[in-house]
Amino acid sequence: MTFNVVHRTVYEYASPVTVSHHAARVEPRVLPQQQVKIFRCTSGPTPAVIKPRVDFFGNHVCGFSIQEIHRHLEITAHSTVTVSSATPPAPALSPDWEGVVKLFSDPVSPEVVVPYQFVLIRRCCARRRNWPIMREKSFDPKTPLLVAVADLNRRIFSDFKFDPTATTVATPLEEVLEKRRGVCQDFAHLAIASLRSLGLPARYVSGYLRTRPPTARNGSSARTPATRGSRCLSRRRLGGF
Length: 241
Prior knowledge:
single chain, 241 residues, alpha+beta, disordered C terminus
């Protein structure tokens, strides 16, 4: 299936800006089941300097500078991406999670050195006394890894309420656990913290999610623009930006 994606970001500044520097991660990744046919990124005002690069994680980054007075900045990324179907793995046939943990115990073999970096405990996940609350019912001994992870996700979905007013980008996970509410970012960080505290590699991947448009009152499908987040063509797994 081929998707045509328009991703637009707009900044409105309260006062004139003389110079601004930006790093746009809006180019979809090339993956085994995903091919990028067309990509272009434009901005207004026109950048005076453009410096593309590839970051540590393999994301294509467009660095650019606006060197004229401006109070408005609009960045638009146009992508044409072809996504092919893949047969998902059978969760019950995945290895038990304890065996996977052993793969990431020192010394680590070269085959798993890349995912090993996603085992490390980040500062936001450092206080681990509450994480067993999330994982203890899902990760019984000998449970297949994908079965356990799916159950952890199910529990987060059922036990926590989506509430965009409950947290900010600075809210610690302890507070999310206490309130049992938050947004997609909070729930993703909670899952990551739970998995890493067990010694399993986990990371955040950004993308688009294809959803059905809302139904209009006359019964037809209403067209709505894409929005950011977990969120309508919303960010599906089109890669790391």
